Fold Ectoine hydroxylase-related dioxygenase, phytanoyl-CoA dioxygenase (PhyH) family.
Amino acid sequence: MNELKKQFCEQGYTKLEAFLSSDEAKELRSIYDALLSDKQRTLHLRSDLAGGTDENRVERITQIMRPSLIEKQLLTHSAYKKALNLVKNILGDDMELDFDMLINKAPHTNTPTPWHQDAAYWINLPDKRAVSCWIALDKVYEENGCMWFLPVTDQKVLEHRNLPNGGALYCNVETSNAVAVPLEIGGCTFHDGFTLHFSKGNSTTSQRRALILNFRPKKMIALERAQGMDHTGVRKKRS
Ligand SMILES: O=C(O)CCC(=O)C(=O)O
């Protein structure tokens, strides 16, 4: 078993230091910045994970779901192909892209993304294989909001609550074993849907841009879509 797969299977997460070249990251950043600044085209897919509904307030943690529905060129970018190949190697040849999303932490907003499991956002599926590839488009470290993980213990979704006003889901967990994963531009992490993760707020003067690609078995994507789950909609707790 290769190292990436071994670490993912043992811990529920792993990292790849040089996933993208600086040119590849630059190409993605220019599409990313155009989407971030275009509130009109992204409005229906956009929210602030920090919570809040006032359109005039400064977004602290901007999330744009399914950016490739707007910028279709993303789907043919080498990042998507490379991630899919790595994910197939980790979890099997039937893995496909389920959805993509952007999460940006604006400068000086200092708002953590609370501890949560991605599976808390999803419907319960019989085949639970899933992996999120979190790609750093800026150098990330503790002060601007790099990812932190807790080694996965079992495939159970813990009790989650909603931050007020449509914010992120969170759960209360013991985090003394948490591991920070700083990355250079173009580095990435892979995490399982049950892996607890978090990021600190961005207290620096620049943005913290991340592109996230989520993969799961082709048959499970079909099952999700049949139940109306296409990852464009309102955040809900798993029922
Ligand atoms: O980018 C962040 O701060 C959080 C990312 C996250 O929760 C995820 O990719 O599932």
Notes: Helices lie at 3-11, 22-37, 39-42, 78-91, 218-226.
